[in-house]
Amino acid sequence: MNYKEPAKKIVIGTTVLGVFALYSLGIRDKVPVLSKPSSIVSASSNSSGTVAGSTATTGQYKDGAYNGSVADAYYGNVQVSVTIKAGGIVDVQFLQYPNTHSTSVDINQQAMPYLKQEAIQAKSANVQIVSGATYTSQAFTESLSNALMQAKV
Amino acid sequence: MPITVEVVDETVGKTMAGNFKKVFAYFNDVDKRYSTYKPNSEISQINDGLPRNQWSREMKQVIDLCEQTKQQTAGYFDIKREHKLDPSGLVKGWAIRNAANTLLDMGYSNFYIEAGGDIQAHGLNANQQAWSVGIRNPFKPDEIIKVLKITNGGVATSGTYIRGTHIYNPHDNFKAADAIKSMTVIGPDIYEADRFATAAFAMGPKGIDFIEQQPNLEGYSIGADKVATFTSGFDRFVGEDA
Description:
The complex is a heterodimer of chains A (153) and B (242). With 153 residues, chain A is of the alpha+beta class. Chain A has helices at residues 5-24, 37-44, 135-151; strands spanning 64-67, 71-72, 77-85, 88-96, 116-119, 129-131. In chain A, a hairpin with a 4-residue loop joins strand 2 and strand 3. Chain A is elongated, with a radius of gyration of 19 Å. The relative contact order of chain A is 0.19. With 242 residues, chain B is an alpha+beta fold. Chain B contains seven helices and eleven strands. Chain B has helices spanning 16-34, 42-47, 57-72, 88-105, 174-177, 190-202, 207-213; strands spanning 3-7, 80-81, 84-85, 111-115, 118-122, 131-137, 140-150, 153-159, 180-187, 218-223, 227-230. In chain B, the strands form three sheets. Chain B has a seven-stranded antiparallel sheet with strand order 1-4-5-8-9-10-11, with helices on one face. In chain B, strands 2-3 form a two-stranded antiparallel sheet. In chain B, helix 1 runs antiparallel to helix 4 (88-105). Chains A and B meet through helix 1, strand 4, strand 5, strand 6 and helix 3 of A and strand 5, strand 6, strand 7, strand 8 and helix 5 of B.
């Protein structure tokens, strides 16, 4: 999937908002990947989506950082960035993740009195039918594959 | 997307094979019309600029249902992404319900249809018991963390499964934007359960409150902290397997 111009602008806009939202929630432990505007801005100027130039060519991938395609996970987009060093994958980061529009997520949510809570527990797997979602993991794989394709020697 | 149909009724006999074919053919037709991955589907033509006065009547109905759902969910259900329409979040449940109604019209009363993790079940299983439906553990997709007993209803789950292998390194910071991993909704049919599960999941931690407010829906929302929050009437669907 190729980068689309409007999508890149939305990525930048969303990530800037995302950074402010995360800081306003008091997230301090790690600098989130979203707060590296230079890498995102430089990605937008390159239509193939690559960020850094390639140098050594050991292994099947060229060194550098590559932004994968923006993949549709239905309720949002998934976009990953892969970092290659010495021909191997050393890091995978999320540039976009579903549900990032929810900038006022209350992480200390107090359950309303009539809602109940429990720790999830494994039950017997002897069921006839299984209800489960698959969209986001597929979108993750799609974006990651695209990034690795760009990195191929 | 794989689709499973199981019919238990004994009276079915010789016509069953033909009726199964009709159900799968229906899903094929739905896919041909609504799949954004098919360049010649009606939805792809619409996204390429086909004007509304040339849409099929069914497409107009579906898009109107999407707009209605958007209004009922304060905009959290929205089929527009990057200037294109993708109604698949509503079409899946809607199509399953249509297929189930077809089977009911054919005279079957004990069956289920499952497509992509969305389920509509009717009557009883081969053991004369309610159908048992498992909810996946979003942290270990091979594990079941809840067993539901369903007869005449729909179950839909919206969620994310992040695989914890060593090269996947999601930042902890995403907990803020990613507080809910999985939202399961039980409804009178899969159309209702599916569209509201999608919207409720997009609402994050507030989604379960939204489901609680709907009189005919129950929900089970699993947080990134592996704690589940569920609605006051959810327990009546829970059954432990023998």
